[in-house]
Specification:
226 residues, Spore Coat Polysaccharide Biosynthesis Protein SpsA, Chain A, alpha/beta, 8-stranded mixed β-sheet
Length: 226
């Protein structure tokens, strides 16, 4: 039943690394899956560099939720995989996903590993993956995948400025449990290194708590993207 995966990638000013990132996805295209890149009106050469390496190139106003929503509307696969442009999938990611779906799961996420070598990153990873399995809530860094059927049943990704991955997971969790895959995606620790590891941890928890207590995402996004 599950055959084709649409890998949906929101981008913004990723010219420095987009070619290397997309080249790693070419084996998945060779297996019959598609890469849908939705650019948030980059000011650099992201689109020009990416175009030969994707199946569909789209343009959207900036904002991950809006970009991913457009990507799903144009995607042709039976499964959607939401992938950040700073995250690397494991080998045979398509087979891992399709096997999870064949076992009766309709959505899931990978374990995440941060690219840095600092020992604190290993602790943060374990806490992120453990919390995700316990709560059934996944983050975008964990590369969420979902069947198109379930995606449509829950109304798609919420069109909000921030925390769309958290809200999306909540919608999916109400329908069924996620597949918590042991295979890992590797995501960039650049933001953590730039702003300080512990400072970033406390900042992210502060954002989550504010969202939990009802602070509007329009207000939070100004803090997240100053």
């Amino acid at each position: 039943m599950w055959q084709k995966i649409s890998i949906i990638i929101p981008t913004l000013n990723e010219a420095e690394s987009i070619q290397v990132f997309l080249e790693k996805l070419q084996p998945l295209r060779e297996h019959g899956h598609e890469v849908v890149l939705v650019d948030g009106q980059s000011k650099d050469a992201t689109c020009a560099l990416a175009r030969p390496l994707v199946d569909r190139m789209l343009s959207s106003p900036c904002g991950r939720a809006r970009q991913q929503l457009l990507g799903t509307k144009m995607a042709t696969g039976e499964v959607f995989l939401f992938l950040h442009a700073d995250t690397e999938l494991p080998e045979q990611a398509d087979q891992i996903i399709l096997l999870a779906l064949a076992r009766g799961f309709f959505w899931g996420r990978f374990n995440v590993r941060l690219s840095g070598s600092h020992w604190l990153f290993r602790l943060i990873e374990k806490m992120m993956n453990w919390r995700s399995c316990i709560t059934g809530i996944a983050t975008g860094d964990q590369s969420i995948f979902v069947s198109k059927i379930l995606y449509n049943d829950v109304g798609g990704i919420p069109s909000i400025e921030l925390m769309e991955d958290i809200e999306f997971s909540k919608r999916l969790r109400k329908q069924c449990k996620p597949a918590c895959l042991k295979s890992t995606v590797v995501t960039s620790s650049k933001r953590w290194k730039k702003n300080g590891i512990l400072r970033t941890v406390f900042f992210m928890w502060s954002m989550r708590l504010q969202y939990f207590f009802g602070v509007k995402t329009a207000h939070l996004v100004k803090k997240y993207y100053p």
